[in-house]
Recover the amino acids of this structure.
């Protein structure tokens, strides 16, 4: 099975900050990498597919990059509604999620 | 408008079999570019993929849970059913179904149900 390692597991930041979350695959997954945002008590929401494709309706302050084994999710100018958990997910072979990153207000 | 909704028991006893139903609308289960997946999340923990299916014949299961899971669909009812045998308290969590979009390109889960919380306890 492909393992997905996300870092950091938690992160404190302030409104207006720029943050980066990384996800590393245990083997190459090309760009079969998606990012989700989850707020407490809610289902995850798809933010980015195919490593860098922003979903319709997602603010442009979110961006994704990477290919192969290393990927990043960047959020520019954090807004209050961005404080949530973020998960990466590979769909190259079966499905695996990263363990998540909890983004908290500093 | 695409929607998915999970249904099933709130409480099951250890060793029992869990049956969950995902009822979908706004898309067809016979569309070969789409599918339905099941994912669970223990309280405060990460998402864990369980199984998915595309059309009637394309099914895939989590390696670690394969022996306990069965996924099936009733296209006429727009439902996808997941059964999990031999339930254990460690299986407690929220169970989600989601639509898979981009089956032959870059699969992603673009619509999710609200989730259903299942507790395993005697």
């Amino acid at each position: 099975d492909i393992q997905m390692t996300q870092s950091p597991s938690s992160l404190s930041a302030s409104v207006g900050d720029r943050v980066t979350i990384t996800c590393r695959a245990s083997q190459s997954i090309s760009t079969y990498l998606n990012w989700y945002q989850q707020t407490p008590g809610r289902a995850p929401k798809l933010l980015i597919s195919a490593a860098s494709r922003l979903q319709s309706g997602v603010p442009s302050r979110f961006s994704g990059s990477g290919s192969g084994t290393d990927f990043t999710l960047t959020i520019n100018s954090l807004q209050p509604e961005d404080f949530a958990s973020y998960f990466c997910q590979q769909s190259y072979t079966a499905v695996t999620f990263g363990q998540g990153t909890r983004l908290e207000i500093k | 408008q695409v929607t998915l909704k999970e249904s099933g028991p709130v409480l099951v006893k250890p060793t029992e079999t869990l049956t969950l139903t995902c009822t979908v609308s706004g898309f067809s289960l016979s569309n070969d570019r789409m599918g339905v997946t099941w994912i669970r999340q223990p309280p405060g923990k990460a998402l864990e993929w369980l199984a998915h299916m595309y059309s009637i014949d394309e099914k895939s299961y989590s390696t670690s849970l394969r022996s306990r899971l069965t996924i099936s669909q009733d296209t006429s009812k727009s439902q996808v059913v997941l059964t999990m045998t031999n339930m254990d308290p460690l299986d407690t969590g929220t169970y989600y179904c989601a639509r898979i979009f981009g089956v032959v390109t870059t699969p992603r889960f673009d619509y999710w149900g609200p989730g259903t919380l299942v507790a395993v306890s005697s």
